[in-house]
């Protein structure tokens, strides 16, 4: 397989997200070379249960993204609920409470769009299960800037709307069943320092 | 050099032009959010580039006013983060009750929802009459709305729930009257509130405060500007005064972190110790 020289991965997931992420994040190898940044739509006041749970199951360090924090490999960052998560040119995070986009805050589109400004053709975007169309615009922008897109095969999605919409809106590089995505990433992404 | 890099240069120059022409300083704001908002405004015009927009801005004040509104994110709510308000009631008010009079500053108050939320709590705890409340923002349009004290009716349900979770003692409906599509906040809550224009990036100290709220404003600032603003708050607070930040904000990027001690870590309530 042709490897992808990837500097960051962004993932958007909504309804059914917790179970989907459990099938991907714990599979990623300890030396996984790119930081992973996730927007998962959640209830505005939900607690950190998902983060602790994923962190316990994974070799990578799963944590909530904090404003101004440096983005680095070895970490899986999850957007705090009720804030949009943005990537700055110096590869740090910023947060915003501006209007909901696609009824969502955090919004997948905003993460995808700002991350692609920074990582350009070295960015991989992944759209997973979800019940709205958030992520479709962002996926299109990532493709326009030369990045890659993977979409979860809607047949394997708890909620098909989001992956279907992403497929309709862009031309994904890969459409994969949920349980294949983790292994695929381990092989697809160039290892560190090689 | 690609399109994105060129655009970033254009944005930099645009912000410089705004500063020199109008005095509003966005140069030290987190860039990603600013850029998104500038590009959205651009998309609504017939202009082709940020550079063209810069030209327009210099010669068309009304156009600048529109962009100014875009650049300040004014989204707010009543009793946002109810747990925070609960902690203010439990940890801050008992101290305030020992003072004969109080000065409180809401910096970046947007349309006032936060100011009225605290005013309601002050009244319920018998502190309102001894309080003088300064509510400031650099955006005059939102300040005007704040003064009116009008909230959209479709938010009432959420605010009522927030109020209850924040330890509200009465019925939230006692604090507003519904009119058409909006609700008018109990006008007597305004008695001790002074609304005024203040820019955290360029203006100076507000003296001898016992409590400062500055929530969800610092997230828009780069480290350097955060540092300036926290320095400003430190100077404006009286000894042992309280500083309340938004739930995802911290003092970590300022040189003044050691001048404060956390009163409640999780809800970002700090106290000035030196
Ligand atoms: C997201 S709102 C926060 C409102 C409220 N404090 C809350 O937490 O719900 C941010 C506010 O900060 C104001 N703001 C931004 N930059 C400012 C500055 N340099 N000086 C004063 N206010 C500023 C904006 O106009 C806006 O009303």
What's the helix and strand layout?
The complex is a heterodimer of chains A (194) and B (274).
Chain A: E1 8-13, H1 17-24, E2 36-40, H2 49-57, E3 61-64, E4 75-78, E5 84-87, E6 93-96, H3 108-119, E7 123-127, H4 136-144, E8 148-152, H5 161-169, E9 174-176, H6 178-188
Parallel strand pairs in A: 1-2, 1-7, 2-4, 3-4, 7-8, 8-9
Antiparallel strand pairs in A: 5-6
Chain B: H1 3-22, H2 31-43, H3 50-59, H4 61-71, H5 82-96, E1 102-107, H6 113-124, E2 131-137, H7 140-148, E3 150-152, H8 156-165, E4 176-179, E5 182-185, E6 193-197, E7 209-214, H9 223-236, E8 237-245, E9 260-264, E10 269-272
Helix pairs in contact in B: 1-3, 3-4
The complex binds S-adenosylmethionine (SAM).
Concise description?
The complex is a heterodimer of chains A (194) and B (274). With 194 residues, chain A is of the alpha/beta class.
Please provide a written account of the structure:
- The complex is a heterodimer of chains A (194) and B (274).
- By secondary structure, chain A is an alpha/beta fold.
- Chain A has one domain (8-188): 3-Layer(aba) Sandwich (Rossmann fold).
- Helix content of chain A is 30%, strand content 21%.
- Chain A contains six helices and nine strands; from the N terminus they run βαβαββββαβαβαβα.
- Chain A has helices at residues 17-24, 49-57, 108-119, 136-144, 161-169, 178-188; strands spanning 8-13, 36-40, 61-64, 75-78, 84-87, 93-96, 123-127, 148-152, 174-176.
- In chain A, helix 3 (108-119) runs parallel beside helix 4 (136-144) and helix 4 runs parallel beside helix 5.
- The longest helix of chain A has 12 residues, at 108-119.
- Chain A is globular and about 40 Å long.
- Chain A starts with 7 loop residues before the first strand and ends in a 6-residue tail after the last helix.
- Chain B is α/β, with parallel strands linked by helices.
- Chain B folds into two domains: 3-71, no CATH class; 82-272, 3-Layer(aba) Sandwich (Rossmann fold), CATH 3.40.50.
- Chain B is built from nine helices and ten strands.
- Chain B has helices at 3-22, 31-43, 50-59, 61-71, 82-96, 113-124, 140-148, 156-165, 223-236; strands at 102-107, 131-137, 150-152, 176-179, 182-185, 193-197, 209-214, 237-245, 260-264, 269-272.
- Chain B has a seven-stranded mixed beta sheet with strand order 6-2-1-7-8-10-9.
- In chain B, a hairpin with a 2-residue loop joins strand 4 (176-179) and strand 5.
- In chain B, helix 1 (3-22) runs parallel beside helix 3 and helix 3 (50-59) packs across helix 4 (61-71).
- The longest helix of chain B has 20 residues, at 3-22.
- Chain B starts with a helix and ends with a strand.
- The mean pLDDT of chain B is 96.
- Classes of the chains: A alpha/beta (194), B alpha/beta (274).
- The interface between A and B is medium-sized, with 21 and 20 residues.
- The complex binds S-adenosylmethionine.
- S-adenosylmethionine (SAM) is lined by residues 72-76, 80, 108-110, 114, 137-139, 142, 199-201, 215-217, 220, 246 of chain B.
